[in-house]
Amino acid sequence: xxxxxxxxxxxxxxxxxxxxxxxxxxxxxxxxxxxxxxxxxxxxxxxxxxxxxxxxxxxxxxxxxxxxxxxxxxxxxxxxxxxxxxxxxxxxxxxxxxxxxxxxxxxxxxxxxxxxxxxxxxxxxxxxxxxxxxxxxxxxxxxxxxxxxxxxxxxxxxxxxxxxxxxxxxxxxxxxxxxxxxxxxxxxxxxxxxxxxxxxxxxxxxxxxxxxxxxxxxxxxxxxxxxxxxxxxxxxxxxxxxxxxxxxxxxxxxxxxxxxxxxxxxxxxxxxxxxxxxxxxxxxxxxxxxxxxxxxxxxxxxxxxxxxxxxxxxxxxxxxxxxxxxxxxxxxxxxxxxxxxxxxxxxxxxxxxxxxxxxxxxxxxxxxx
Amino acid sequence: xxxxxxxxxxxxxxxxxxxxxxxxxxxxxxxxxxxxxxxxxxxxxxxxxxxxxxxxxxxxxxxxxxxxxxxxxxxxxxxxxxxxxxxxxxxxxxxxxxxxxxxxxxxxxxxxxxxxxxxxxxxxxxxxxxxxxxxxxxxxxxxxxxxxxxxxxxxxxxxxxxxxxxxxxxxxxxxxxxxxxxxxxxxxxxxxxxxxxxxxxxxxxxxxxxxxxxxxxxxxxxxxxxxxxxxxxxxxxxxxxxxxxxxxxxxxxxxxxxxxxxxxxxxxxxxxxxxxxxxxxxxxxxxxxxxxxxxxxxxxxxxxxxxxxxxxxxxxxxxxxxxxxxxxxxxxxxxxxxxxxxxxxxxxxxxxxxxxxxxxxxxxxxxxxxxxxxxxxxxxxxxxxxxxxxxxxxxxxxxxxxxxxxxxxxxxxxxxxxxxxxxxxxxxxxxxxxxxxxxxxxxxxxxxxxxxxxxxxxxxxxxxxxxxxxxxxxxxxxxxxxxxxxxxxxxxxxxxxxxxxxxxxxxxxxxxxxxxxxxxxxxxxxxxxxxxxxxxxxxxxxxxxxxxxxxxxxxxxxxxxxxxxxxxxxxxxxxx
Lengths: 369, 576
Fold this sequence. Notes:
The complex is a heterodimer of chains A (369) and B (576). Chain A is an alpha/beta fold. Helices cover 43% and strands 18% of the residues of chain A. Chain A has helices spanning 2-30, 42-60, 74-82, 94-102, 123-126, 161-164, 183-189, 198-202, 205-216, 230-236, 247-257, 284-294, 297-304, 314-317, 349-354, 356-368, and strands at 34-39, 63-68, 89-93, 136-149, 174-177, 222-225, 242-246, 261-277, 310-311, 345-346. In chain A, strands 1, 2, 3, 4, 5, 6, 7, 8, 9 and 10 form a ten-stranded mixed β-sheet that branches. In chain A, helix 2 links the parallel strand 1 and strand 2 (63-68). In chain A, helix 2 (42-60) packs antiparallel against helix 13. Chain A starts with a helix and ends with a helix. With 576 residues, chain B is mostly helical. In chain B, the strands form two sheets. A three-stranded mixed β-sheet of chain B has the order 1-2-3. In chain B, strands 4-5-6 form a three-stranded mixed β-sheet. Chain B folds into three domains: 3-213, Clc chloride channel (Orthogonal Bundle); 231-433, Clc chloride channel; 443-565, CBS-domain. The chains are: A alpha/beta (369), B mainly alpha (576). Chains A and B meet through helix 8, helix 9 and helix 15 of A and helix 2 and helix 12 of B.
């Protein structure tokens, strides 16, 4: 009797295990195989691939497909308006994310998905202030900086924003992003406006006119770029003597490829990139799962060891060490390194998100002048 | 020195330091809170350019706010001042000066809080008034509170008030030395080691709180290399003279505006609302007139930000509207508007100079800064403070020396044309005249009734000479006061005047009818003036109905003078 009941129990357990395995297999077969992440390409995307995409695929079996993006909210509006939502996760500049959130283009993200720091610190305390938002999770601190081709200035080197506008002392073409982002700040910084007052002054018609006048001084020398990897090409190819661009790209070009590029940290424009989920995606849960994975401290630190962008959580910052391939200490190259912060401008995301139309109109009019 | 003496000194030093730190901290925190609250209101009420640009997609809302907010703010200010401030006006630096200079009662705490609230609404709603006046009064208010404590410290109130003011200025400008000097130059009006030490501690406390703890941005940052040409100092001096003229125009407009409002608008609490409406109407066309104008201040130092015509227009608009706002009862200072008008005028002068004197110049910035400080120093009567503000903010000797030349020439002229400052003018209108020196002004604030003696021989109008003569002999006096049944003083009888008179002569026939009398409001200064050519023992003091209250002996008037002077000299010369 006793032996019989044991056999029944064993059969039941086997049955349950089989059922469970069946259900799991069925579940797996229902899971999508591909998650689409919209991001910025180049060395930045490579760092993401190694730090986030590949480990995520390895852990879950889900492939990451990337779509190239150059910033802004307009493309999101068009994509959503098309009715065929193919994007899941988007890596956005915080001000764009804020605007897109206000416009109802993004899904809400439950902060409960975020993992605590390895020492157990809750995410709310571990992430920098303002990083956890209803619609986005800020992940990196990046910087838009001015860099120059060392070969263009064999003698005295430029070292300030003012030098960028001084074609007499530092002749040569200037590479600038074709967008009203950063131009205004640099134009006023070159006129000795203190960084604390930049956005107050740019809020006036007079401030915009003043910036326009300053940009007029270099209008003939400007080469416009749109993709993040272009400024490096402009400098390495000798097409431009100076260019604005993302600090991580310049770091990568110099550290990994030996490009003769130097960065001017004066007036570096600090910005933040955030993970968002596009409204209407059928894979919102999976997108959230990816964000939870990518914002783990060890993964964020892994990216910072590949490209010089600062992680947005303290526990990740503490883990930043040597470049994974080059063995270069990464901390001195982060935008948040103390020596780089003296004249840094923290981009006012609120101002940016609210003045989208105004800036676009100003820029269009200035281009047409 | 014995042990008790040492203990007393240690007690004094510790207590003075504690008072300075506590008052300095309170004034500094209040100043920071006040400025932040103004910014908050400016943002919420669509007054600041930052807030206005964020709402640029709703131009109707911005235009409506431009019109309605200053007018509604004016109405609130009018009501607060009329119903909550006992003095029925905004409290300002002249009240701080008066409280520090005299021992009389200062405006109460409730009035001070209500006045600060009115200033907050004024500035928050975009009125063209300044924030430093209210900050100075806030500092003085905390000093006055500390002055009331029974700490057994000499000159406690005036020093505590100076501490509060120094901390407020130090916080507002990130300029501790300027705060220290302002408290001495404008509030205390003398320099002494007794005041110097605690006021320095308070100014440093304000600086530490503002600059180290809260990391407040400076009012302005200017990078200036040097004055390129020596002949430019002549231009700076000329600029100073012109700024004195502009300060004079500003004062005239202020007086004119005050008179107009009092004559033509009967209901006092409506006046600020009318001024606010005018500000709103002008701001639809020239938004630079709204509020403190920190952006405009900055633009004035940048080459190419303004055209000459634009500058002229904004200067006139700002001058007229500031006079209108202050004269019509908005609560706020004149220092910030003077800085703004001055810097705009300096920029205007810098732009005009190439046409007037076609020789090389050192650029617009230096002329803008010189104009700012020259005009402000003429208005507030603090040349040393303004020079120090330039130095502490810019750390540039060249810029400071250029500003110094402009400030000195501005003050040379304005002192003779206007007087020492707007504050002194306002005090003179209240009967406290500092123009003839601190001694006279303080003697004017002390009443001679405090030295009243009731040891007096009084006689009835029905008494005879004989009765009076006997009474005077008995009292060992040489004069008597003749009173009627209602105690009203009818005359003074002197012994030498009745010595040869018949004993049965009615005393009233021999009494002197024309004699010197003091009343309850006679000041020590007036009593001294009235004693010129006085022959007699004592001066009778009568109330408003002419009834005798007592007499003030000649000796008491001299004693009053000596005591007050001794106190003053002690305050000015004693060590801490």
